[in-house]
Amino acid sequence: MTLFAFYLAVVVLGILSMGFQMLGSRLLSPHFGSAIDVWACLISTFLAAFSIGSMLGGWISNLAPHARRRGQWACAVAAVAALALTALWGRALVSAIEIGVASSGLAVLLSCVALFFVPVTALSTFSPQCVQFLAARGMPPGKASGLVYGVSTLGNIAGVMLTTFVLISHFRVSTLLYLWLAVAVVCLAALVWLLRPLSTAP
Q: What values do phi and psi take at 12, rounded to 5?
């Protein structure tokens, strides 16, 4: 049951990350369009967040148990707070940047960084810790890494397809941002609970 909940959380984490990119494109589109330069800024921001989040998560996973728990809670709170910021004031923030920055390219990049970098970075910190979760239970590290990132990538695919072809077609982007926030709260709370030290796990 614990492993089922773990893999489900990993899949949902993947859905949240890449589905958020699709929502991000819709959030930016009324202000900047959907040309290739917008997508370049959006994709680059997400890749930078994935990279830094993975490195930060790897560092957190090697901390002492109590410090690791504090790091996990800090990342979970940061992700939820940043998603809430995007849901509540995302459009207003993009509008302010569009008006205040003369260069449209710079305005797009600043909008992407302001709205998406922190939540995606915080979400990405949990992937290396999920690898450690399996490795600490006896799975070879290479197999654990391949399994976590493979399952997470399936979640990424599901997030892109579900968001693009189902959710965006039937719901407003503002509604979906609140949905993302609610799902993130549940998923991250579950992950923090699952990733607790072995000494307190059943």
A: -65, -35
Domain extent, residue 75, equals: 2-23+40-200
CB 19 within 8 A of CB 168: no
Radius of gyration, alpha carbons of the chain: 17
Size of the chain, expressed as the number of residues it contains? 202
Q: What is the pLDDT of residues 10-29, one digit of tens each?
A: 999 999 999 999 999 999 99
Question: Does the residue 58 lie in any domain?
Answer: yes
Q: What is the pLDDT of residues 136-171, one digit of tens each?
A: 989 999 999 999 999 999 999 999 999 999 999 999
Q: Does residue 30 fall inside a structural domain?
A: no
What b/e string do you get for 54-83 counting C-beta neighbours within 10 Å, with b at 16 or more? bebbeebbeeeeeebbebbeebbebbbebb
pTM: 0.94
Q: Which CATH number does the domain housing residue 182 bear?
A: 1.20.1250
Residue written as tokens 């695919």? 157
Is there a domain that residue 103 lies in?
yes
